[in-house]
Design brief:
The chain is α+β, with helices and mostly antiparallel strands. It contains 3 helices and 5 strands. The chain has 2 domains: 73 residues; 79 residues, OB fold (Dihydrolipoamide Acetyltransferase, E2P) (Beta Barrel), CATH 2.40.50. The protein has a 5-stranded antiparallel beta sheet, with helices on one face. Strand 4 and strand 5 form a beta hairpin.
């Protein structure tokens, strides 16, 4: 015979403040992701585009908690409109080699600071889009929780009903 576990269930009324808190945080993360995305788009809109050539792939192995992880970083050379040759290393490593030596890649650079160029890759957009996607889903789900909490509140007779419910409960517990 299996023992049944006692299920602890918070009253539905407590879903409202928890849902509001989660909704506020997820909207904050959604805003952060959209601002990060806008900053990248603005930076790229003001940049010049050059064709770069992969001249090296740097392999870095790190060990964390006994587990080794190898990441590959592209080293790319490109020529600015002024004719200067610039060599940059990708800021984000990849667990797989995506480009080989000699491959051409698109590079975005500011003519006043070509050493801070960005290599066009999916990783460039990953963080802001991940923030926006995950926080958007969490915001939607928490909005449903808030809506459910509001409906529960209306069943109790609104805010006045909720306050009287709390006061009655406090008197009974004394």
């Amino acid at each position: 015979m299996q023992k049944q576990r006692a299920r602890v269930r918070l009253p539905a009324l407590f879903n409202l403040p928890i849902g509001l808190l989660v909704l506020a945080f997820s909207l904050g993360f959604l805003y952060f992701g959209s601002q990060l995305n806008a900053r990248i788009e603005e930076s790229l809109a003001n940049s010049l585009v050059a064709e770069g050539r992969v001249v090296d792939v740097i392999q870095r192995t790190t060990s964390r908690r006994g587990e080794q992880r190898t990441l590959y970083y592209l080293v790319v050379e490109f020529r600015t409109v002024q004719g200067e040759t610039v060599r940059i290393q990708s800021g984000e490593g990849s667990s797989q080699i995506t480009d080989q030596l000699g491959d051409t890649v698109r590079v975005f650079y500011d003519p006043s600071a070509p050493q801070e160029a960005l290599i066009d890759s999916p990783a460039l957009w990953l963080v802001p889009r991940l923030f926006m996607g995950v926080s958007g889903v969490i915001a939607f789900l928490s909005a449903l929780v808030v809506l459910n909490g509001l409906l529960q509140l209306l069943k109790l007779g609104g805010l006045v009903g909720m306050l009287s419910f709390i006061l009655l409960r406090q008197r009974r517990s004394k």
